[in-house]
Design brief:
single chain, alpha/beta, 18 helices
Length: 602
């Protein structure tokens, strides 16, 4: 009897084999979400072995040393939202798992989480196997998988159970949009959420009202609106906000934790904030995107069709140019917790599939490579957040929510050696001509970003150095995400420990239970039992350090601050401006389609 064929041996180039053994980083500022320390870091065989004073450590022989004087040493970024090699709208996204993860590493992201999206009627397990077969031979960094629930039946429920117990999946995404393709109704949502709760999983939701969108698309096309501007007109802020509120209510009724993906508007952000206050900041988590923080929906009206179409994604970018700052402030005060990229890239000829019908433009933009720099530029550089909060919203919070912490999202003995040596003073200009992604357009084109990765270390291997990326296909590994993440379920079940309270306080830069007030602006006089405060963002750049914060980030490591921006180390968080009614309403105004009537304020 012939012996079985041995499994193929993964070949790793010599430069990567030697880089993964021993590495010593000295004189850097090590930044975790809950503290900053001037420390050295020793790495061996892909794992952090020591973090502390160089005086207390003897560097072993045969060890490469990197001098990080004046630089930050931060956990590698975790992008919780990518779509590599995705079949959508009759075509396939151009960033595959090799090109996409290589671009991620180039920008300082060392872990990605992609989405398995079964076709309607397709087995979840078969779709999962398809994604693994695409990714495993190609990824250059570690990755995890969420699984989309694109249809519902008893067999889907059983396959969810198998995925949790045997395949390393703890998160399932539902769609309230894409009618006829992925959309579930409310009853199905409830059953999915119930199943997630039973399995100890995290439910995720794309929150837009798909029924209204379908009606609006038909009306707009009938009125002759065929260009990219029709995309945003068909799915305005109110459409996103209504679904966001509905999803939060359904999840709460089912007792299930909910992660709202890609919050793109002020109105939807407010709904997440209201739900978190309503439920004592447990069970509801919100993600926004680099795209929403770095640009806006005014591009949909660009005279160049291709330029406008290149910005199409769902939910869409919003035309209100103050939206990016508003969303960053929600991140600053922990109303939103994570930043993803929703990287799903299509080239010019692919976008042209919707040349005569905006509803056929493949949805998706870039972001996996530029996410870290955009968040630093729009958050830290403007004075809205500090380096610790940056680490929280680009890495640690995602690791906690999806049960990868402290293996990922932290620099500590025993953690994976996924690190970035970050130069907060360096400046780079984003461009499609220099990025590592396969797409021919970059939505952040021309943006100057302070904050650049000098070195990116993936499982102990130096993969970015002197702007050169050195990686090998398949050097990354699949990450199992165990069920019942402590960060999610302990709080949901009322088990919150004092140490975690302190940890979370520091993670939010000392911002706990902010007494914000915001008039919801409903047209009727129905009492809102959970109002946000009247004194609510937006406003000028704000400091986000409270007077009793223990943050000790040296001013020198935060880089240049533009004139007018506040130094977080010198002031306390305060929202003192009283918004007048017009300012409040401007953030939630519902714009009417051409020829239609506005529905006012919700």
């Amino acid at each position: 009897m012939a012996s079985p064929t041995p499994a193929p041996v993964k070949k790793v180039p010599i430069h990567l084999q030697s880089a993964q053994n021993r590495l010593y980083i000295k004189r850097g500022h090590v930044v975790n979400h809950d503290g900053v320390q001037h420390a050295d870091v020793y790495i061996e065989d892909g794992t952090v072995r020591y973090v502390g004073s160089g005086a207390d450590f003897v560097v072993p022989g045969g060890c490469r040393t990197i001098d990080a004087t004046g630089l930050l040493v931060i956990p590698g970024g975790i992008d919780p939202h990518t779509h590599f090699q995705l079949e959508f709208g009759g075509t396939v996204s151009v960033d595959d798992f090799y090109k996409g993860t290589k671009a991620a590493v180039a920008g300082g992201t060392t872990t990605i989480m992609d989405f398995v999206l079964p076709k309607k009627g397709e087995s979840l397990l078969e779709a999962y196997d398809t994604w693994r077969s695409r990714a495993d031979p190609m990824v250059v960094c570690d990755y995890g998988l969420h699984v989309g629930i694109t249809w519902w039946s008893k067999s889907v429920r059983e396959e969810m159970r198998t995925l949790c117990r045997e395949r390393g999946v703890n998160s399932f995404k539902c769609f309230m949009a894409y009618k006829g393709l992925y959309q579930l109704n409310d009853s199905e949502l409830y059953e999915v959420f119930e199943t997630c709760k039973e399995l100890g999983a995290v439910a995720m939701v794309h929150a837009e009202n798909g029924d209204i969108i379908a009606k609006n698309v038909t009306k707009l096309l009938a009125d002759g609106v065929t260009g990219p501007e029709g995309h945003e007109l068909s799915r305005t802020e109110e459409v996103e906000a209504e679904a966001t509120n509905r999803a939060c209510v359904i999840a709460h009724q089912a007792g299930c934790p909910l992660y709202v993906v890609h919050v793109m508007s002020k109105a939807a952000g407010i709904e997440v904030a209201r739900a978190r206050r309503r439920y004592n900041c447990t069970g509801i988590f919100g993600e926004t995107l680099a795209a929403a923080l770095g640009t806006d929906g005014t591009h949909y009206h660009d005279k160049c069709w291709h330029h406008a179409a290149a910005h199409v994604l769902s939910p869409p970018l919003r035309p209100d140019p103050s939206t990016p700052e508003f969303l960053m402030k929600l991140l600053a005060q922990d109303d939103l917790q994570t930043t993803g990229s929703d990287n799903c890239t299509f080239n010019r000829n692919q976008k042209e599939l919707g040349l005569k019908d905006f509803s056929k433009i493949p949805n998706g933009v870039n972001g996996v490579e530029d996410r870290m720099s955009v968040v630093w530029e729009k958050g830290v550089q403007t004075g809205l957040i500090d380096a610790q909060r940056f680490v929280a919203i680009t890495s640690t919070n995602a690791a906690k929510i999806f049960n990868l912490y402290p293996r990922k999202g932290r620099i500590a003995p025993g953690s994976d050696a996924d690190l970035v040596i970050w130069n907060p003073k360096a400046v780079r200009t984003i461009s499609a001509s220099t990025h590592h992604q396969a797409c021919d357009f970059n939505i952040f084109e021309g943006m100057k970003c302070h904050g650049v990765p000098e070195f990116v270390i993936v499982r102990g291997r130096v993969c970015l150095e002197n702007e050169h990326v050195r990686v090998a296909e398949g050097q990354g590994s699949f990450l199992e995400t165990p069920v019942y993440p402590t960060f999610v379920y302990d709080a949901l079940n009322g088990r919150v420990h004092s140490e975690e309270d302190a940890d979370d306080k520091q993670a939010r830069n000392g911002l706990q239970h902010l007494e914000l007030h915001h008039k919801p602006g409903y047209d009727n006089d129905m009492h809102d039992p959970y109002p946000l405060p009247e004194k609510y963002i937006p406003g000028p750049a704000l400091s986000v350090i409270s007077g009793d914060s223990q943050v000790s980030t040296p001013h020198s490591i935060l880089g240049h601050r533009p004139d007018g921006a506040k130094n977080m180390q010198e002031s306390t968080f305060s929202i003192s401006e009283e918004l007048d009614k017009s300012e409040v309403r401007s953030c939630i105004r519902v714009r009417a389609p051409p020829g239609g009537k506005s529905s006012g304020f919700w």
